[in-house]
Amino acid sequence: QVQFVESGGGLAQPGGSLRLSCTASGFPFSSYAMSWYRQAPGKEREREAVAVITTSSSTNYADSVKGRFTISRDNAKNTVNLEMNSLKPEDTARYYCNARHPLIPAKTYWGQGTQVTVSS
Questions:
Q1: Which of 10, 9, 12 is nearest to 88 (CA)?
Q2: How many CA atoms lie within 13 A of 100 on its CB side?
Q3: How do strand 10-12 and strand 114-118 relate by DSSP bridges?
Q4: How many CA atoms lie within 13 A of 99 on its CB side?
Q5: pLDDT by residue (tens digit) across 38-97?
Q6: Rg (Cα) of the chain, in Å, rounded?
Q7: pLDDT confidence of residue 105
Q8: Nearest alpha carbon to residue 54 among 101, 96, 119
Q9: How far apart are CA 36 and CA 19, in angstroms?
C-alpha cells in the first residue's frame, strides 16, 4: 500500500532553516508530481501547494515562499525534499507531502504531515 515517511520538522528560530524529507513507497514515484502543502494552527489546509515538483523536475512555489524554499526530488530514493530558509513565524504549520498522478487526479496520496514551528 501507499506509505509516506515524513521527517525533518521541528522548532526553528525566525531566520533559521529546516529541511523536510518525504520518502514514499507503494506507487511508481517517478511518475508522480510531488508537492508540499501546509496547514497552519486553527486553519484549514492551504489549497495551494507550498511547492510542487513535476515528473520532469519543473518546480513551482507559492508567492509566500518564493526565494526562501526549494523543493527537490531523488527518484532513485523515492524521496522529495523541501529546503526551508529564512523561516518566518507565519511558516508555522503542519507540512504534508502529496503525490499526484499528472493524468489521473484520483491517484492522489497524502502523507501524515510533519510539524514545523518557527518561534524565538
A1: 12
A2: 15
A3: parallel
A4: 26
A5: 999 999 999 999 999 999 999 999 999 999 999 999 999 999 999 999 999 999 999 999
A6: 14
A7: 86
A8: 101
A9: 12
